[in-house]
Design brief:
This protein is mainly alpha-helical. The chain contains eight helices and no strands. The structure holds protoporphyrin IX containing FE (HEM).
Length: 221
Amino acid sequence: MGIISSSIARKVAMALSGLFLVFFLAQHFVINLTSVIAPDVFNSWSHFMGTNGLVQYILQPVLIFGVVYHFVMGIVLELKNRNARAVNYKSYKGSANASWASRNMIISGLVILAFLGLHFYDFWIPEIVHKYIESHPEDPTRYLVETVHKFESPVRVGLYVLAFVLLIFHLWHGFSSAFQSIGFNNSYSKALKGFTKLFAVLIPLGFIFIAIYHHFNQIPH
Ligand code: HEM
């Protein structure tokens, strides 16, 4: 496979893993929004996701692979682009008119990666320990209280909100450019671009609302 085709293949794979994570983000937002608007639904959906074999043993490993693949490939592509730029320094016309978001995908990406590290420590690892290591008897009503209590600390809320702001920049460029990378270019592209920008702003703002709402609506311990 020639250099060109392999770099195109890498870009397409990066775009497809990005679109997969956008789909995850949409479902993750809907589930977590219920923790504010319909707490009983949040508990039953979380219990279903937490105990369903397909979700736990198929979808979750695929998701974690998608997250790791997207970040590793993102760093590899960034390093390759930097090397390419260094080589053609003289002829590189610079990206004067490229947006901050598109020039700094690696920065917003690394901040989101750092967030996921904290987020896995906050939610995913305790879930794994609860279910598979300490094997507590199942309590389908525990999820809301556990989630709300995580947002008691203003420091954690501050870090989450900062990461969600960088998520806006990452999605602002990444979501629409992913469609370009896979060659989706037709009469719907303009409307699709509008949708990707709306999604890039509204979903992270929605996550910011959920975090701040739970911080100011704590459930007594
Ligand atoms: C206020 C916002 C958020 C809340 C309340 C929240 C809540 C949760 C909870 C409760 C879990 C554990 C699910 C389980 O394993 O049982 C989880 C897992 C996870 N979250 Fe979030 N999350 C939020 C934002 C985000 C964002 C913005 C991202 C991505 C950038 C994200 C990515 C993930 C991933 C990858 C997992 C592990 C896979 C999974 O178990 O579903 N989360 N989150």
